[in-house]
Amino acid sequence: MSRRSAIDSARARSAWMFVAPMLIVLALVAAWPLARTIWFSMTNATLVDLTTYDFIWFDNFVVHAEGRWYGIFTDPQWLRALWNTLVFAAVSVSLELVLGVIVALIVNAALPGRGLMRAAMLVPWAIPTVVSAKIWQWMLNDQFGVVNAMLEGAGFIDGPVAWLGGSSLAMVSIIMVDVWKTTPFVALLVLAALQTLPKEIYEAAKVDGIHPVKVFFKVTLPLIKPALVVAVIFRLLDAMRMFDLVYVMTGSSEETMTLSVFARQALVSFQDVGYGSAASTGLFLIIALITVIYIMALKPLGREKAA
Amino acid sequence: MAVSACIHHLRLFGVALLAMLALGPARAQDDGAHVAIACGALGIELELCRDAAQEWAAKTGNTVEIVNTPNSSSDRFQLYVQLLSSQSADIDVLQIDVVWAGMLESHLADLEAPLGKRVDRMFPALGANNRVNGKLVAVPWYIDAGVLYYRKDLLAKYGYQPPETWDQLTRTAAAIQQAERRAGNQRMWGYVFQAKAYEGLTCNALEWVSSYGGGSFLDLDRQFTADNPQARAALNRAAGWIGTIAPRGVLNYDEEASRGVFQTGNAVFMRNWPYAWALAQGEESPVRGKVGVVALPKGGPNGESAAALGGWHLAVSRYSRHRAEAIDLVKYLTSAQEQKRRAIKGAYNPTLTALYDDPEVIEANPFFATLYPAFENAVARPARPAGARYNQVSDAIWRASYDVLQGDSKAGPALTRLEDEIARIAYRARWNEAAR
């Protein structure tokens, strides 16, 4: 008994030794900046002079003073950014999931030129986001963009459309570009799952004469569910933090401002370190909340598997 | 995966940072002081600055380095903020926008003693703008103000005078636009200006509201002043232009986009800065010789012409290791002789009023005489009361104006929301406590 525990503790020690470098790096690059951001979110620090500030508790988040409500949770612009972020995340992740599964099914089928298709599929995912955002920004330009030229040439539109101008079209355009860019990522994960599926099940289904659509919903979908779950959590967290695409394509425009763009504007353009940190902390809390809810919702799934 | 990508970026950043620290900026080690100046980013502006700075260096035995800065003014502002908030001595002399005086005040040296007298000989609005918290933070280098460009030929053809009120402008623009279109010129528009959601719209909105006697959004006591009938009338009038005398695309126009429309002959009137004059009258310009400049219209018979004050100034960093030499460079660059050279070579509007009587300057730029009243009546953006919060205030102003122009909102509710936003800014900046 005691010998076993001695071995156990020795193993635990060496395990800690192996984990330690990673933990130290994580503490330096993740925990420390996070702690500092949370600290600054409770101050009124500005970039004008970062050395003197007051500790103001939660006044940056919500406070009632002088007969009005202040703080990010009551700031119409922040709430608008929250709404934009949620809409963006929900719509883009749903579309990417559906399209990703379709693309994966196509390239999983034994078609001629499949290898080329798989490679070509990854191109949008391989281009750095800032570069593809800039490319799309030019393509969607209302005056000399190729998208308008093509649509006009084909007779779909009469005059130039301001894709990224001040209208709800801007959000549609950004979602479209994000779907273009990240569908390959989902497709790749789903494709990997598809390739591990046992062939026998499909042969059995074929022998029994089951309709392919029914096979997909009754066999394929349940089997690739774990991969979909992983794809959704990755994509959801990425989408909630969306910054680069929006910032490059439409700047700090209110129509498309996400929570990260709001935080950057407060921190850098307005030099308001306290308020910007509060906005970042708010985003952190929201993402943490979504992750917890998601994992809780998945628990029954894990138990099913264990049983 | 996302986290590890993040860490990867941070690591790369760390390596880059270490490399930068290890190399450090190369510095001259001879007798004279080494002064770094950030001025224009490209073209004639950079050329004029470099030549003059090197001339000063040759005369005084110091060395001078021209620091490359981004062309976009908001990017340049961010660079300055980064450098100054880390108390960097990398830049000694900075070229700053007229509205940055309040925002950068805490980082800039007081120039009152060496250069206060010179500033008193410049347009009064400039001195008022640059004296912040009892210190002179920058010396005006060149001045800008919004002006109205018009097509002389078209006004003469249809028998109109340059407009004195916005009502006249609206009527004249509509009539000429209609007549020209009937004559087959389908792309003709009446009026183009800057209505994109950016700093330029704050300038335009200020001009409208102020010309109607509606104040300048914030008074010197930091009280919101634009919730009044004149301001509402001014903004609603501007909203009426969109789609009638101005193309809907004006909602995405900055200075250059409006100039593009006007200079290709497709607009009767244009609001712009003086720089557009030299280009509209250039060799290649289709409207060469057909352009006139007047002060912007008044709000009504009782209103006043209001032009937004613009321009760039020279300031000295508080963290400079060679403050005396840096101040001497500013003194040299803003001197009458140097401003005259810039006016003749680059059409930069001098800040010293006396230069507008100089025959050589007027000969090179005959339109300077027309601009003089616009400079004299220029209205400052609320940069002085807003101080460090100016970017935020301006952002709120242009967003409210944009909502009205776009037709999302009438001026009344938009201005009420603007008041609420200014209250939020005031609360965070503790303006009310400071006033008590």
Explained architecture:
The complex is a heterodimer of chains A (307) and B (436). Chain A has 307 residues and is mainly α. Chain A has helices at residues 2-40, 76-108, 114-121, 123-126, 129-139, 146-153, 169-195, 199-208, 212-240, 244-250, 259-269, 273-306, and strands spanning 63-65, 68-70. Chain A has a single domain, classed as MetI-like (MetI-like fold), CATH 1.10.3720. Chain A contains 12 helices and 2 strands; from the N terminus they run αββααααααααααα. In chain A, a hairpin with a 2-residue loop joins strand 1 (63-65) and strand 2. The longest helix of chain A is centred in the first third of the chain and has 39 residues, at 2-40. In chain B, strands 1, 2, 3, 6, 11 and 12 form a 6-stranded mixed β-sheet that branches. A 4-stranded mixed β-sheet of chain B has the order 8-9-7-10, sandwiched between helices. Chain B has a two-stranded antiparallel ribbon with strand order 4-5. The radius of gyration of chain B is 23 Å and the shape is globular. The model of chain B is unreliable at 1-29 (pLDDT under 50). Chain B has 2 domains: 28-137 and 310-376, D-Maltodextrin-Binding Protein, domain 2, CATH 3.40.190.10; 147-306 and 384-435, 3-Layer(aba) Sandwich (D-Maltodextrin-Binding Protein, domain 2). Helix content of chain B is 50%, strand content 13%. The interface between A and B is medium-sized, with 35 and 35 residues.
